[in-house]
Design goal:
- Chain B: One of its GO terms (cellular component) is AP-type membrane coat adaptor complex.
- Chain B: Keywords: Protein transport, Transport.
- Chain B: InterPro entries: AP5B1, AP5B1_barrel, AP5B1_C, AP5B1_middle, AP5B1_N.
- Chain B: This is AP-5 complex subunit beta-1.
- The complex is a heterodimer of chains A (about 425) and B (about 900).
- By secondary structure, chain A is α+β, with helices and mostly antiparallel strands.
- Chain A is about 20% helix and about 30% strand.
- Chain A folds into 3 domains: about 150 residues, 2-Layer Sandwich (Beta-Lactamase), CATH 3.30.450; about 130 residues, Sandwich (Immunoglobulin-like), CATH 2.60.40; about 50 residues, no CATH class.
- Chain A is built from 7 helices and 16 strands.
- The longest helix of chain A has 18 residues.
- The radius of gyration of chain A is 26 Å and the shape is globular.
- Chain B is of the alpha+beta class.
- Among the domains of chain B are: about 160 residues; about 120 residues; about 70 residues, no CATH class; about 110 residues, Immunoglobulin-like (Sandwich), CATH 2.60.40.2550; about 110 residues, 2-Layer Sandwich (TATA-Binding Protein), CATH 3.30.310.10.
- The longest helix of chain B has 22 residues.
- Chain B is elongated, with a radius of gyration of 46 Å.
- The relative contact order of chain B is 0.03.
- Classes of the chains: A alpha+beta (about 425), B alpha+beta (about 900).
- Chains A and B meet through α1, α3, α4, α5 and β5 of A and α4, α7, α9, α11 and α15 of B.
Chain lengths: ~425, ~900
């Protein structure tokens, strides 16, 4: 709670000002956790359309707006940004600077709570640190540093004299052996239909993660990402704010472009001054095709399985879930089969997990696997562009394999 | 009372935080603020506990110290504690500074007359600029964090009192070049600069002077409050800073600074921007918002200064930074963004709105930004969401909704798709069809999911929200609506349990969808056998979609259904449908159905209702029925149908008391026919229908009077006089009590009392029939003689006014004159119903009157005649 901000809100909002209720009523009204079985006009109303995570709450007959809120890992994150004008009619969200600041704050609280946190004790410790951190990172409600971990370090780091031009996002300086760790992670999501009239879809997202242990206040680093010859270009590149400049070819490359020979395919140069902590230098996507993975089928939205005969060719089979755990290695044949006969019982309505895709005869197999030291795009860091001591590449994939015998949801192409 | 222990405080703070209002209302509430301040001085409490006490005063100063004197005292106390801290490292200095600032700013204390303000401000400024603030204020290791905190406090104070630091712009600028925490200083300077420009636009001390002012001007101990005062810088609700770059009327009037001022201003801004990369991304974003706001509308300030920053910022994934770029776009428009830049920004925004590496709330926000994108040359109306011109279908390819999306993403992308469909219709046919096909597929998929038996409610809700969205965006496109309507009908067929959603949708959508959807849904329902398990839903649906001229299909459905309405709930639902049909005017078959229900239903309440409806249908005309069953006028807010029904009946069927809607007056005498007839003039004050006027005679002097009926009266429209025949039992004047019963234009029946009408003695006069030819001379004499001996004879002096006897006779007695020899002699014979007579002989008039000889066969009228004759000259 920031009383000085509320005081300003009262003036700015004029007659449309609504005080923020106490925590209990506030959360109750937010209703992010509700799960109503019956039709309740207030929530199930067809005009009650939320197109953003910004809500209006009814507080004692008046409307509190805008409330930025979302639910993540069973926790509600909510903030109410200041709007420096009257609230009726609602100004467009885009004109309120507090919206992005509020969202950013919530993301960072969430990131902080769940970073390197193993269990509830860890979470509770972090929760207890939170008020102090917020006092540091956002005195008077103005967010100064979205990186709460930084603020924590800042409290502990009693620097006697900071030199001129010490960046606010860098708490101290590193002293020791210079070392740069880079890891490239690509996540692949693919929907394979095995049907002629529907194209398979896939999504490849890469993240380049840096940890630079370098001396000096503002060391300049440049790296370049390279692709193999005839590799598919990297697209939709979003970079960390510490990157100082970007080539226009990198800025404009996006997934709507047709992939042809003329497309810019690297090397992708990124000059930057790294912060102390580990950070995501950039994210990218690629349209590199995903090789087909053949798999068979899974059932949902039906009654319980009453009878099951099965035979797996490889790995261990978890009976209750019908999951085949393959283990660390693929078999040499690259083929795993699981055959069986399944009989379904009558469907009971309540408390069954519901799947939104398995409708009618549509079913799918969901495969998760990860491959070390491999990127689908072939993207790698040019080791000569920067002194590199450790490169680790990981690829994680999750594939959805759809039953080709039934209609399936498609995305626009 | 000594200081509380750590545990006691923890408990107390916990109780407070659980519900501040409840705690403050409790016995302990009042003392909390005082105890808190006194225990902060206690040496027994640990620093950690004190920090938690300060945290409370940061969050709830208004509860702890609710009025201005209390806030001033609290701030003073906090400052005392601060300066008395021993000069070793302490975790309390920063929170104490923050708390003192908060208490001053939020308590409305800040001002030149407040002692605490006058202590705090120089202290903060001294700490910030690294000057000696005396008496070893904290150890050296704390200097830097305290410096930052001081800047932050100053910024908050400047936010709450714009112009407060206007006099220190020069000082702050000079600090920017020196050693010190750059981030809080940059933000403070940017804010002070912006506020100064706002204040400047209202009053106008030299900007240059302020920017150039050196340290010396602040050396003295007194604070310069002039800018705060001049700018009457009490915060004012700001006009939206968005989107009008050109309008400039947003609190910042067009300033026309001198070239020198422009140079200084530009140097300051450039200085801030050049070092902005040293700020954290969120702070950079704030700086850009502030500077963008400051320079917007300022002539001679090319926003090109921002250009180098943009190149750096466009690549970022950081939410606040991209948002700040959009703010600059809105503030400067074409001056900063060429159309190529605009296209690039849109492209980046499109990428960010779907980038798989970003979280969902960010996607949604960017999608909103796309639809509210500040275009250089917007086409559509301001403030309405629309797809920007440069955002073609090609660019949106990745933003198409899919069934796999989260509901919020799906809806917001669907909105974009609808906008594209609406836009594209005229342009490329092929493309439009493609989009439309996709839209149809998507909706079909949503319906398919909603149709799943036992599926979650959220899926159904989503389907109806999507349908509503499409119907409201594309209401004028039959190509889209037709399949939508068919699809919804199929959905109902598959899952009647969704009836409440359908009813709600029908209530919300426009007529383009509502009317055809009603028709197909009605067909859908009535084609059912009327006895399946979903009967409850069918009836609910039918109550919504039934038409007035109840078709035979609807009625036969209801007839079949009636046999299966075993329990009370179903019967109620069935009757609701009947009620809906009644309201729309019923129809031939409905009466039979209601009669059947009145016999057949098991529930006695249901039978009663059916009978009531039948009676209503049989006795009330269509419009009246509509009013009786329509939404209650008396209590429109009641949600309960039963209550609403009762209220509706009450309003519709019970006669309401009202004020008189008409004025009645007695018109000129008619004096003809067998009975006296009162001629009534009517003037309507409001429109009335089916007016019935009832007359009651006081004292039973006359026989009961027939009511008078008027179909319709309107104000301003002349009405025929009303004729009211009187049947006197005695020839005597009387008063008529008048009541009006009528229907208002809204269909309510009302009753009103009108002022009583007097019936005068003369109103009863009737002439004798003309005597047969030749009998005239003896006619009067015959009557004259017949009066005695039963009757009475008298002589009366009738005063004459200036007009003379002839006028008097012609005005009042003309119809009754039997023989006249003007101007000297008149014989007058008056019939007084029921069966009396009055005979007058008017003789030669004298100077001021005329002697009248009179005879009557009813001596009881003598006093009335005397009064009448004497009153004639007065009434002239």
């Amino acid at each position: 709670r920031y009383p000085t901000v509320e005081k300003r809100a009262k003036v700015f909002n004029g007659a449309s000002y609504v005080p923020i209720p106490e925590d209990g009523p506030f959360l109750k009204e937010l209703r992010l956790l509700d799960d109503d079985k019956d039709f309740v006009e207030r929530h199930d109303c067809c005009t009650h359309i939320n197109k953003t995570t910004i809500y209006r709450l009814s507080v004692g007959g008046e409307e509190l707006w805008p409330v930025v809120a979302f639910l993540k890992n069973g926790m509600i994150y909510a903030s109410v940004p200041l709007v420096e004008q009257t609230l009726s009619p609602h100004p467009p969200l885009i004109s309120i600077s507090g919206i992005s600041q509020g969202l950013e704050l919530l993301f960072d609280i969430q990131g902080f709570l769940y970073s390197s946190q193993k269990n509830d004790t860890g979470l509770n410790t972090k929760l207890s640190q939170l008020p102090n951190l917020l006092l540091q990172a956002s005195p008077f409600g103005t967010l100064l540093d979205a990186n709460l971990q930084n603020s924590l370090d800042n409290i502990n780091f009693a620097s006697v004299s900071q030199p001129q031009k010490q960046p606010a996002w860098k708490v101290g300086t590193y002293k020791g052996k210079p070392q740069v760790s880079i890891s490239i992670t690509e996540k692949v999501k693919s929907m394979q239909y095995d049907k002629r009239d529907i194209e398979d879809t896939w999504q490849v997202v890469g993240a380049v993660i840096f940890k630079c242990d370098l001396e000096g206040i503002m060391p300049n680093v440049t790296i370049s990402l390279n692709l193999p010859t005839n590799g598919f270009p990297l697209q939709d590149i979003l970079v960390h704010p510490c990157v100082t400049s970007l080539d226009s070819a990198i800025l404009t490359s996006s997934n709507i472009d047709a992939v042809d020979d003329s497309a810019f395919s690297g090397p992708y140069k990124f000059p930057f001054t790294p912060p102390l902590e580990s950070f995501n230098l950039c994210y990218y996507t690629s349209q590199v095709p995903v090789p087909p993975i053949l798999a068979h089928i899974h059932f949902y939205n039906t009654g319980p399985i009453t009878q099951l005969e099965y035979k797996g060719s490889f790995g261990q089979l978890e009976k209750s879930l019908l999951i085949c755990i393959i283990g660390q290695k693929f078999p040499k044949s690259m083929e795993i089969s699981l055959s069986g006969t399944i009989t379904f019982g009558a469907k009971s309505h309540d408390k069954q997990p519901f799947d939104q895709i398995c409708i009618g005869d549509t079913v799918y197999v969901k495969l998760h696997f990860s491959i070390l030291d491999y990127t689908l795009t072939g993207c790698h860091v040019d080791q000569h562009s920067v002194q590199v001591f450790a490169i680790r590449k990981t690829k994680t994939s999750s594939h959805w394999k759809l039953n080709s015998k039934a209609p399936a949801p498609v995305t626009y192409g | 009372m000594g200081p509380l222990s750590r545990e006691a405080w923890a408990e107390r703070l916990g109780a407070f935080r659980a519900s501040p209002s409840a705690f403050m209302a409790g016995a302990d509430g009042e003392d909390l603020g005082r105890d808190l301040l006194s225990d902060l001085r206690s040496e027994k409490l640990s620093e950690q506990t004190k920090v938690s006490l300060l945290a409370l005063s940061l969050e709830y100063p208004a509860q702890l110290w609710p009025d201005v004197p209390a806030a001033e005292a609290a701030a003073t106390s906090l400052l005392d504690i601060l300066v008395l801290l021993p000069p070793r490292p302490s975790a309390l200095r920063r929170p104490l500074l923050l708390a003192a600032t908060t208490v001053l700013a939020s308590g409305g204390v800040l001002g030149p007359t407040s002692g605490a303000s006058c202590r705090l401000l120089p202290l903060l400024l001294g700490l910030a600029t690294g000057r000696d603030v005396g008496r070893g204020f904290g150890p050296i290791s704390e200097q830097r964090p305290l410096q930052a905190t001081a800047y932050e406090c100053l910024r908050e104070l400047e936010s709450c009192k714009p112009g407060l630091l206007g006099g220190f712009l020069g000082l702050l600028r000079s600090q920017l070049g020196q050693e010190g925490p750059i981030q809080p200083l940059s933000l403070l300077l940017a804010l002070a600069l912006r506020n100064t420009l706002v204040v400047q636009s209202r009053s106008g001390p030299g900007l240059k002077g302020l920017l150039m002012a050196g340290v010396s001007s602040t050396g003295s101990g007194t604070w310069d409050w002039t800018l705060v005062e001049e700018g009457h810088a009490h915060l004012q609700p700001q006009a939206p800073c968005w989107p009008a770059a050109e309008e400039g009327a947003c609190g910042l009037a067009m300033l026309e600074p001198s070239p020198e001022e422009v140079r200084e201003l530009r140097a300051s801004v450039a200085q801030l921007l050049d070092t902005s990369y040293l700020l954290t991304p969120v702070a950079q974003a704030q700086l850009l918002w502030l500077l963008g706001w400051a320079l917007r509308g300022l002539r001679g300030q090319p926003p090109a200064l921002f250009k180098p920053q943009l190149v750096r910022l466009l690549g970022t994934a950081q939410l606040t930074l991209l948002h700040a770029v959009l703010a600059l776009k809105a503030a400067f428009g074409e001056a900063l963004f060429t159309s190529q830049d605009e296209a690039l920004l849109l492209r980046r925004l499109t990428v960010a709105a779907q980038h798989p590496a970003l979280p969902l709330p960010t996607h949604l926000f960017y999608l909103h930004c796309l639809l509210s994108f500040p275009e250089n040359w917007p086409l559509g109306p301001e403030g309405e969401e629309a797809a920007p011109l440069l955002l073609g279908p090609q660019l949106c390819r990745g933003l198409m909704p899919s069934l796999l999306h989260d509901p919020m993403v799906l809806l917001s992308r669907l909105h974009l798709l609808c906008l594209l469909c609406a836009e594209d219709e005229e342009e490329e046919k092929g493309h439009f069809q493609n989009l439309q096909w996709y839209l149809e597929e998507l909706l079909a998929g949503l319906r398919q999911r909603a149709a799943l038996d036992g599926g979650p409610r959220a899926l159904a809700t989503l389907c109806f929200q999507a349908s509503y969205l499409v119907a409201s965006c594309l209401a004028r496109q039959p190509m889209v609506l037709t399949p939508l309507i068919q699809g919804l009908a199929q959905l109902y067929q598959a899952r009647p349990v969704l009836a409440p959603h359908f009813v709600e949708l029908l209530d919300r959508v426009g007529p383009e969808l509502r009317e055809p959807l009603r028709v197909v849904l009605r067909q859908e329902v009535v084609s059912r056998p009327g006895r399946d398990e979903a009967l409850r839903w069918h009836l609910q649906m039918l109550a919504k979609v039934a038409e007035g001229d109840a078709q035979s299909a609807t009625l036969s459905f209801l007839q079949t259904a009636a046999a299966h309405c075993a329990h009370w709930g179903l019967q109620e639902a069935l009757l609701k449908v009947c009620r809906a049909l009644l309201r729309e005017g019923g129809g031939a078959g409905l009466a039979d159905l209601l009669q059947a229900l009145a016999r057949q239903l098991e529930d006695p309440d249901g039978r009663d209702h059916a009978r009531l409806y039948y009676i209503l249908l049989a006795h009330l005309a269509g419009p009246k029925l509509g009013v009786a069953l329509g939404p209650s006028l008396a209590a429109p807010a009641l949600a309960s149908s039963l209550m609403a029904e009762n209220q509706g009946f009450a309003a519709g069927l019970i006669v309401q008391e009202a004020l008189a809607p008409i004025q009645l007056s007695v018109g000129p005498q008619r004096a003809s026919g067998p009975l006296p007839v009162l001629q009534l003039q009517v003037e309507a004050l409001e429109p009335v229908y089916s007016l019935e006027l009832r007359f009651l005679v006081e004292g039973q002097l006359y026989a009961p009077l027939e009511p008078v009926h008027v179909p319709c009266l309107c104000p301003g429209r002349p009405a025929h006089p009303l004729l009211l025949p009187l049947r006197p039992r005695q020839p005597a004047p009387a008063r008529l009590e008048v009541q009006a019963l009528y229907t208002t234009p809204t269909g309510l029946t009302c009753h009103a009392h009108l002022p009583p009408l007097p019936v005068n003695f003369a109103d009863l006069f009737l002439p004798f029939p003309q005597p047969p030819e030749g009998a005239q001379p003896g006619f009067f004499e015959g009557l004259w003689d017949s009066c005695l001996p039963k009757g009475a004879e008298s002589r009366v002096w009738c005063p004459l006014g200036p007009q003379g006897l002839e006028t008097l006779v012609s005005r009042y007695l003309e119809p009754f004159v039997v023989m006249a020899q003007p101007p000297t002699s008149y014989h007058i014979a008056i019939r007084l119903p029921p069966n009396s007579m009055l005979l007058l002989r008017l003789e030669a008039p004298q100077v001021d009157g005329v002697p009248v000889a009179l005879r009557t066969d009813d001596w009881a009228v003598l006093p009335l005649v005397g009064d009448y004759l004497r009153g004639l000259s007065v009434t002239e």
